[in-house]
Amino acid sequence: MRNISRIALLFLFLFAAPALAQASVNTSVTADSLNAVGGTFSCTGSGVNAAFCSKVIPWTSGSYLGKGSASATFSSGGVTQTASCSVSTAGGGTCTSSPVSIGGYSCTASFTGTPAYPAGAENGGIQGSTSCAALPTGTISASPNPCTITAGQSTCSSTISWSTANTPSATVIGTNGNVFASGTSGTATAPSIPETSARSFTLKDSNNNTLSTVSVTGVCASGTTWNGSVCAANPNPAPTATLTASPNPVAYDGRSTLTWSSTNATSCTAGGPWSNSNTLSGSGLTNPLTSATTFTFQCTGPGGTSPLASVTVNVGSAPVNGACASTHYSCTAGTSTNNVAGATSYTWTCQGSGGGTDASCSEAKSSTCSASCPVTACQVSQTGGNAGKNYTQYWAPGGGANCPSGGVANQAVDVQSVPSFCSSTSQTYLYSCTPPTATLTASPNPVAYDGRSTLTWSSTNATSCTAGGPWSNSNTL
Fold first, then answer.
1. Please, which residues have CB within 8 angstroms of residue 8's CB and are 6 or more apart in sequence?
2. Rounded Cα gap, residues 355 and 73, in angstroms
3. Residues whose CB is less than 8 angstroms from the CB of residue 474 and which lie 6 or more positions away in sequence, other chains included
4. What is the pLDDT of residue 97?
5. Residues 350 and 359 sit within 8 Å (Cβ to Cβ)
6. Taking the CB of residue 158, how many other CB atoms lie within 10 A of it?
7. Engineering a disulfide at 243: which of 86, 171, 297, 307 sits with its beta carbon 3.0 to 4.6 angstroms away?
8. Is 280 in a helix, a strand, or coil?
9. Burial level of 182, CB count in 10 A (0-12/13-18/19+)?
10. For 293-322, what is the mean pLDDT?
């Protein structure tokens, strides 16, 4: 019975162990007994990052020698790995597989077999398990990289920084193979970085596995060159050229100020629609710009030619001036706003954009005419005010010999000065007129080269018509 207790305790210990923080590997394990008398025994278990199974083999089943094997499957992110181990000696024991790497973990399979002895009435058992531990990780970097070797010097220094996880210890190995620094994280100064070759630093975990590597180089400071032993000052440093524009962008037809400068230069050249007047530095306004324009600046000196400096000044949209269309509330350019339908006309504004001007527009609702009509018959009714004031007079269309048939149906007047309601005094009144129309056609259209076409014109409600273009209507309607 003591074997049963031992198996049960191990079972409880494995399941009580805390799981790893990263649950990224699914595992399964199957344990099978070998050389069992009275039958073959097996168990299957699964879990995340750890799987376990166990089975008691009663002594009444016959002798069991404690042999067996465990086979495990590990899967993560669509990748599968397998591991197995076996105990092949009588008397039982424990085996552990070689580790497999998956999903950032190192995983193993284990098997334990315990013999069953009928003669001593002792039970046996089998158990299988898996275990996954997060793999060590680490990063290493150098700053600055490259480091700068000053004039007269042959080397420079850089700060090496590193950090690790899932390893009890770590070391940083230098180019010469010696330990440069130790610890799971830290910083250390690496001196003597040469100009002629790079120095490498390798981060290793507690099992001497490489986690990360960085290479550091040294470069001569600007204005110096390597002379074989040190970075020496350059007697003829390379020229530089800079060019800026402000403001950028500018409004349409606007101007920007260009500012230019140089070093180690004897002459500079402007490119694009501007001139530096052969100066090495200065500032000045561009011409008015209507589209994006690129300006360049380049200098030469004893040390050679500078890289080309360039700046592009962007330009806003062109202004749009408002323009009225012939139909009310319409514009040939701009946006129609402030639409008003008055008593006798339509008014609206064609609003410009981008700094453009607005246009005030109007269209008459209808034409008006006037006539002097002797009042020969009228009907008057009082609509308000005192007697002799503010009356409405009604004329029947064609009521007088000089009134057109389209005469006013009614007209409000102040008759205070009229001696009687029906006066024969000649007065001027308004009446509505039908607007004139004009039509013009050409046939045939088109015509052959040097051919002729017949123009046909007509009008209604018109008293005169005018021709435009290379023809004449001879003042006919």
1. none
2. 75
3. none
4. 95
5. yes
6. 23
7. 297
8. coil
9. exposed
10. 94
In degrees and rounded to multiples of 5, residue 9 shows phi and psi of -65, -40
Does position 109 have pLDDT exceeding 70, yes or no? yes
**Residue 374: both structure tokens together:** 């002797």
How far apart, in Å, are the Cα atoms of 472 and each of 66, 278, 456, 459, 462? 126, 65, 12, 15, 17
Contact 32, 44 (CB under 8 A): no
Contact 252, 319 (CB under 8 A): yes
Q: Are 311 and 290 in contact (CB under 8 A)?
A: no
The CA distance from 298 to 278, in Å, is 11
Q: Per-residue pLDDT for 437 more than 90?
A: no
Tell me: pLDDT of 64 over 80.
Answer: yes
> CB–CB of 226/153 below 8 Å?
no
The C-alpha atoms of residue 298 and residue 313 are separated, in whole angstroms, by 18
Q: Distance between CA 435 and CA 442 in Å, rounded?
A: 24
274-295 pLDDT, tens digit each: 999 889 999 999 999 999 999 9
- Is the omega angle on the peptide bond into residue 397 within 30 degrees of 0, that is, cis? no
Give residue 173's Cα distance to chain centre.
Answer: 43
Tell me the pLDDT tens digit for each residue of 361-375: 998 875 433 333 333
Other CB atoms within a 10 A radius of the CB of residue 433 amount to 14
- What is the full DSSP assignment across 116-153? BBTTTTB-EEEEEEEEEEEPPEEEEEEESSSEEEPTT-
**Contacts (Cβ under 8 Å, ≥6 apart) of 307:** 240, 241, 298
**Residue among 295, 211, 305, 294 at smallest CA distance from 266:** 305
DSSP 8-state code for residue 159: E
| Nearest of 189, 162, 183 to residue 171 by alpha carbon | 183
What pLDDT shows up at residue 408? 40
Tens digits of residue pLDDT in 1-54: 333 333 222 322 232 333 334 547 999 999 888 765 656 788 999 999 899 999
pTM for the whole structure? 0.46
Q: What phi and psi values does residue 153 have, to the nearest 5 degrees?
A: -110, 160
User: What's the mean per-residue pLDDT of the chain?
Assistant: 80
Full DSSP string of 174-220:
-TTSSEEEESSEEEEEEEEEESSS-EEEEEE-TT--EEEEEEE-EEE
Residues 264, 240 contacting (CB under 8 angstroms): yes
Residue 289 tokens, joined: 């710009």
- The band of 261, judged by pLDDT with boundaries at 50, 70 and 90, is very high
Q: Is 10 helix (H, G, I), strand (E, B) or coil?
A: helix
| Amino acid at the residue 206 | S
Q: What angle do CA 321, 325, 327 make, to 5 degrees?
A: 155
Tokens 């607007």 label which residue? 435
